[in-house]
Structure formats: C-alpha cells, structure tokens
Amino acid sequence: MPNPYIPMLTIIKSIVSENQANDIKTLELEFKNEEDYNKFNYIPGQFAEISLIGKGESPIGIASSPTEEGTIKFTIKKMGTVTSGFHDCNIGDVIGVRGPFGNGWPVEDMKGKDIVVIGGGFAFSTLRSLITYLLNENHRKDYEKITVIYGNRDPGEVLYRDILEEWKKHDNIEVVLTIDREVEGWKDKVGFVAPIVKEVGPSSDNAIAVVCGPPIMIKTTIAVLEELKFKDEQILNSLEMRMKCGIGKCGRCNIGNKYVCIDGPVFSLAELKKLPAEY
Amino acid sequence: MKDIELKNQEIENTIKDLAKNLLKDRKVDMIIGYTKGTVPLSSSPIFITREEDIDKLIWNNLCYANLAKYLAPRGPILYNKEGQEIKVGIIAKGCVGRAIIHLTVENQINLENIKMIGILCNGIINRKRIEKEIGEREILETSVMGKNIIVKGCDFEETFPFDDYMNELCKKCKVKSPPKVADSCVGECLESPPLIEDDFNDISDFESKTSEEKWDLIKETLSTCTRCYACREACPMCYCSLCFVDQNKPIWFGKTTDFTDIFAFHFNRAMHLAGRCVACGACSSVCPMGIDLNFITRKLEKIVKEKFNFTSGIDKETLPPMMTFRMDDNEEFMMEED
Amino acid sequence: MQEMILMKDQVAKLFTELSEEYNVFAPIKDNGYIAYRKITNVEEIEFDYFNSKIPPKEILFPQMEVLFEYKTDGKNVIEIEDRKDLDEKNLLFGIRPCDAHSFVLLEQFFAFGNYQDEIFLKKKENSIIVGIGCNSPKSTCFCTSVNGYPFQKDDMDIFLVDLGDKYLVEAVSDKGRELIQRFAWLSKASKADVKKGQELAKKAEDLITTKLDLTNTSECLESNFSNKIWEEISENCLGCGSCSFLCPTCTCFDVIDENAQYENRGRRIRIWDTCQFCLYTLHTSGHNPRNSSIERCRNRVLHKFSYYPINYGLIGCVGCGRCIQACPVNNDLREIIKKINNIKTKEEENIIA
User: Fold this and answer.
1) Which of A147, C212, C242, C291 has the fewest CB atoms in 10 Å of its CB?
2) How many Cβ atoms are within 10 Å of A161's Cβ, its own excluded?
C-alpha cells in the first residue's frame, strides 16, 4: 500500500472569485496524472486534503459533482496561512490533493425521497456538489421533489450565482434564495434561513433535510425542522473540525469515539445526539 | 538553629491556621496551596473552598510548583460561575510572592483580590538530581531529617546533604518570603523591597568556559528535550495566549527535536523572560527529562542586574527593564568602540 | 521449542552477528535516564535498568518523522520523494511487556480503517521484538489491571528472563524462533533455569501493589460525561505534553511543511502533538470545542478507557505508570480512575462543558 500522506499533483485550470468581498474563490484542478484522476472516485459531501506543498494542507469540501468530468473544484475561503496561500495562486500552479476522504452525503439511501437542501453562507460548497449530482440526467429520476433554500448575509455573498440561475430555470427543482436584510434590487426572499424554511414549509413525509451552515443557523433551522415533524434520522449535517491527516490518524478531529474525517463529516442528527457535545 | 523538619511543621501549622481564618472570615473564597503527592519527591497544587479540606494543606521541601501560575490570565480559577472575580488566598514562598508582584506590575492580575499567605521557605529539594543519582532503583519514601535528605527504597537508604541537594536556584535565593505589598500579605513577609546582593559566583564556572565549551554544555544539557512544554506551562510568566513557538504567520522557529529547534525554543523563551523570571526553578523541577535550566536563568538574572540594576518581583513600583526605558539606561553595549 | 540460555557476556557476540542485518535498538543511559537508541557498540547497552523515560514507541514512531520530501522549480513542486528506509530491519532489544503490548495497540490503531499508516506499519513489519520480563515492577506499575502481567510474552517475538548473569531465552513467534535457530552456539536451558524463571515471574506479580478495578469504568465514563467531577480532576492540570509524550499508546501528531527555501527542496514532517495543548482543537475561525482543561483532561481519560475499548475492544492503557511519575502537578491517573468509579449519582451537579 502506498504512503497515504503523499499528495497527488494537480494544476490549477481556472480560478473564479465567488463573492464581492473577493475572499472566496473556486479553484478548478486538473490532475497531472490521468491515472490519479481515474482513481479519484468521490461522492458529494466528501472532502480532500489539498496542499500548497511548502505551506501546508487544508481539508476542503469538494464543490464539484462526480458527474462533472475532467476536473475537480474546491471553493476556498481565505482564513488562515494556507488558505491565504491558495488565494495568491495563479492558473498553472501546482496543488497537492489527497483524498477523497469522509463518508459523503448518503446518496444511495436518499433515493426515492424528497430532498430539502438548506444552506447558509459559505457552507454551500458541498451542497453545490450534491444538487448538481441529484439534477444529473442519470440520477434525477431516482429522487422525488428537490427544494433548495440558501441564505446569505447580503447579495454580494451569494456563491455560484451562475449555476443558481440555471437551477432556477429548471422546473424539477425549487430554489429559494434569501438574504438577511432588505437590499435594493434583490428580488428573492428576505429573512434568516430558519423563518424562511418555516415559510416554505417542506413536508417531512418521506423527506431528508440536509443542513449546512454556521452553528447558529444550524441550531435555529433544526428547531424549525423539528416543528415541521422531521425526525432526527431525517436531518443530515456536515460537521467542520480541525483536521490534519484526514485519515483518522493524527487524532485531533475526534468527537467521542468517532473521527469526523472517517466517520463523518456527514452525521445525522440522531447520530450527533449520541455523541458528546464537543464540536 | 531548628531542624528543617521542625521548621516545616511550624510553617504547615501556621499555613493551616491562617488559611482557615481567611476562609472562615470570608476574606477569600478559595485557598491555593500544596497537598501531599501520591509518589515520592512530589507534591500537588490544591484548590480549597471548604474549611473541612484545610487539613489537606502541607508545607515541605517538595513544594516546587509556582502557584502564581494559576493566577495568570489564562487561569479560570479566578472567576466564579457568574463570571465575577473571586478572592484567593495563596500559599506564597518568596518566589511565588515575587511572581505575584511581577504579574501585578504587568497588569495581569488584580492584587486586591489576592491574599498572600507568606512563609519563610527553606529551599526546595532538587528532585531530578536525586532521581538521577538513585538511578533505576525505586524511591519509596523521602524525608528531611536534621541537615539531610533521606531517600529510602525497598533495599536501600541513602543520605544527601540538604544544602547541596537543594535546587541550584534555591541555593542563591535572596527572597525567601514574599515582599510585603500594601496589605496583601498575611503571615511571613519581607518588610520593604529587600536589597538584593548577589555575587553570582555559582555561574562563574559556566562563564569561564570558552564559547565552544559553553556550546557543548548547552547541547549536552538540552539534547534530550522532547518539546513537551512542561517548563513553559509551569512558568507563571509564560502566559501568552499564543506562544511564539506556536505561531504560524509566519513560523518563527521549528517545533521539532532537532537541536537547532530545541536551542531556538529555550533561548528565545529565555530572552522573553529577561527581567521577568523570578528564579523559582519550577521549569527545572517539572521537566520529565530532568533538564536543569538554572545556568540560563542565573546568567540572565546577572545580566539584568548588572545592566539595569533590576530584580523582578520585589516591588510594585519599578517597571521591568524590557517594558520601559530610563534616560540613564546603560547604552555602552550598543556603542561602537572608538 | 526448548528454552535457551544467553550468557550476558555473550551479548556482544550476538550483537556482532546481528548488526549487519538489523538496526539494533537497546536501552542506553542518556543524561541520567534510560532511553532506547540505535546502538553501534554493545558497550553502550545499559543492562541494569527498570524502564526508559520515553517509551520505545519512539523507535517506530519518533518525535519527529519525515512523511515525504519534495523538490521545487523555485515556485511549484516538481517531484515528490517517498521514504526509502522503511524496509530496513529493526531489532528492539529489552522491551518490557507493557511496552511490547503498546506495539499491539499502536499497530491496531495505525492499521484501522480504509487508510493505513504505511510508514509505521512497514517499520513494524520489519521489526523483531526481543522483550524481557520485569523482575521488579514499581509501585506505580499497574499492568495487571489492564490485562497484562510482568512476565507477559504474547506480544513479543522473543522473551528473555534476567536470571542474573544470564538470560533465559524463549521463542514466542515464528519470527523469533527463526532468529534463535540461527544462533547454534546458544546453550540449552536447564530445568533449574526454567524453574528460576517461573519463581521470578511469581515474585514479580506479587510486587504489583496498584490494582485498579476497571470493570465498570468505561460505562461510568460514558454516562458521566458532564459530571462536575471533571472540574475537580482537571483544576490543577497545566496543559503540557508530559503525560502524552511519555505514554506508550499516545499517537496524536501535527503536520508541518519545512522548506529549504534557497535550495528548492523541502519536506513534510510530523511531530508529536497532544490533546492536552490548548491549541490542539482550535479552528481557524477561533472556535475551540475543547476550550478549557476540563474538556482536555476528560478527553484523554475517555480516549484511553472508553473510546479505545469501543473502537478496538482493547483498553488504551498499558499500565506502565510513566504518566503518574512524570506529571508536573501530580495528577495521578490512579486517583482519577478511583474518582470516576466512585461517582454515585448521575443527576448531581452536571456542568455544561
């Protein structure tokens, strides 16, 4: 077996600035070695450890869907040393990739159900992967109604504007966008995510709710979902933790006896309630 | 001259009385002191909030921790559940008192909430030196009798002269009780900022070495450092929320056990302690690898005393040399020779 | 296979025959304490020892280790070089049963799941453990409380008993048997030798005075996560790495990239880390799930006595007692376990942490 700490080399094919503040960018990576790309079989919700070799590594959720062939995409927010380094990169630069890691969204178990995708802010990254996957012509028929509710602080923070516009045009998916406070020119909803979810009122009957966002948004949204009679097993969350190795060896991402990098990052609310509140 | 163990017993009785009264009269909400260790050559810091636990307090020559560490800003001990600062009584040998005063000068603690239960410390046993001399045999019991430290195992008994087997820093200690500041001290204390006279002849051996010999000694002493940071965590002056060695924007020094990294950590930490270290020796007492940092501490203390005429933690008014400048500061070392 | 005898003055001969093929690690004296180091000369070996300060896990899982090296063109990486020394053979001499057991725990941990730590596992595969029984355990030893005992040989390849001027040599694994058979000059052990070995075993087991009752501990820990007792247990903890770094089963590490900037090369290394450091779980956003010593101390104890049993069916502690000796504030694990076992009620005073 190979050394699991050695990254595969990729080249940056394109860089897209996703928000007005210009601190969130999507990097599109192409594997230098085709064999590596062929081995990189992932499902939505998984993450990879991407390196600026010499600076460090970061665990980033994969933003592209496996149905988008040829390259993989990562949406990175400029936060610390390594992520700032990614923001200084140019097309053609070499990025190391290790992965795919984590359990991903349970796309098999979600078949035949209504899917309610609720995202807040920057956490929409792996939800983009999920929705793209669900909408793919080979998969759409496996799932029932798809509802997307995506909230942000202001219009400048909305990620993936192009793809959101495209989705809105489809009649096989309902997309509801919302911002925290009224802004001139904004045509969609206004309000925090939780009350908008209440307003949209998705049915909990044979449904799975996928919730991703800042802790306060998750807390309030879960409260609304519980009011709407969603059971704990029907609510899925993707957790963030400090990670280094991504493969359950360095120890730091543990919650109880589980490691977020191998047993997660996707946990149902039922599973989370069994774990100690250390996240 | 009373025997050490009798003095210790007296001190212990006084501590218990004073602590009990402070708690009873609600002058403090908590007492920080030492209790008996579960293994020989050790003691354990204890936090007492109930009168009935006062008997757990001890005093002996193995009370090596610097309790002022628990007062430093990171310590949650100082706040009650409502987030209000509580009043604390703290068993203070001289160096603990010095640390408290210095932390006050650095604006890190509120002296009004601290009551120092001052004691006249007669020195701390150099536990690592004794451990190394006993070697692989197990120590089952230690005691001080007369002028000696008695160390017993299951098939041996050895005697060490107390004066020689004290911590190196304790041998040259000039501040055996906490200096009195306002009414923060009950018990034994030094009345006015004591006049510190020190010939520093304990490091003359080190100073007389050539650069190569010094380097070899430093390398030999520090080579087994495992970067556990017990020294840093035991030091009351190391209270930075992000230590220089943990910073990564940029990474200043490496965290490995390569000697260049080990040297960088210890010597930079020493620089950060110039004019702040209170020579308590806790760093050396807690090191799991038995590294004795006293030669660094003492040399630093000498330089600060000679260049700035400053000793840390003896009065509340004088600012430490690295935190201020005076018009009469020594500038010779900066000037080129004509 | 019949037990053999290795006279202590024959160890030099053994070493000469082995040193061509193996990196031999043995206990030496370094700065006053015992350490397992690679030896080049049999004179370096310290035969009269209790145990090392730093456990022998550092032979196969050192404090600092290279994960891979790389070359750049000044800006971007152009080549990655894997470790080339993992196929070297190692002989670990004089390992105590507690430490030998720790290698089982380490192997279990590093091999678990979809991704295995090849670096450690390859080295372990190429290593042979020559262990030795403990004739005089210390009062802080409690291997018998964690399914071990002073003369346990299951986790070794070859088992030695120190009979004074000679060692009783016993093959435990096939690897061990093969190695012993190479040394035709070893004499056979007499019945008296074997009997003496058994007597020493019995004597050693009687010397273990610390006995912890761990039957209900895992359950107590699970059902008392928020109990106030953790405040008391953690209040004097300084948050240093002494316990973890000296623990034979602790494996947490940090990953750092080091650049030789002007030479267009660098390496990614790992160094020991510990959940006791306050920065261990700190997110870049500033959020820290384990913000105080309460959560950190609790995590360590739970990890050894609750999470390990749940995940691997093994207790994550080998009873060596190093943490008890090393803790700067004498936070004694034996006292902690006693306090946990004695928690009477669950509803009483739960804290939020």
Assistant:
1) C291
2) 12
